[in-house]
Amino acid sequence: MQGVRRQLLHVQADTVGLPVWEVPLPSPCPNDEYERRMSATMERAVEEGITHIALGGGADGPDGDQPVVSNLVWGERNRSSG
């Protein structure tokens, strides 16, 4: 998803009937704040019975894009800790 504009992501998700949950992050974002916000979002997903997720970036600008590596590493590290 790296480099995909937010508007395109929403159009694609709407087309296949999938929700998009954006997690707003400050810039710069301290790791503890990132962990808090992402953990809260994952808890919400579990509560709603969601079993699969896709992580991506997009917080750098109004339509922005950002590398997704940190999200993928976080997701892999935390996917079974709940």
Structural overview:
With 82 residues, the chain is mostly helical. It has helices at residues 6-16, 31-47, 69-78. The longest helix has 17 residues, at 31-47. The radius of gyration is 13 Å and the shape is flat. The two termini are 25 Å apart. Mean pLDDT is 74; it is low at 61-70.
List the SSEs and their pairings.
Layout: H1 6-16, H2 31-47, H3 69-78
Summarize the structure.
With 82 residues, the chain is an all-alpha fold.
Report Rg: 13 Å
How much helix, percentage-wise, in residues? 40-55%
Measured by DSSP, the beta-strand proportion falls in under 5%
Order of helices and strands: HHH
Distance between the termini: 25 Å
| Average pLDDT taken over every residue | 74
Features:
82 residues; single chain; 0% strand; 3 helices; flat; mainly alpha
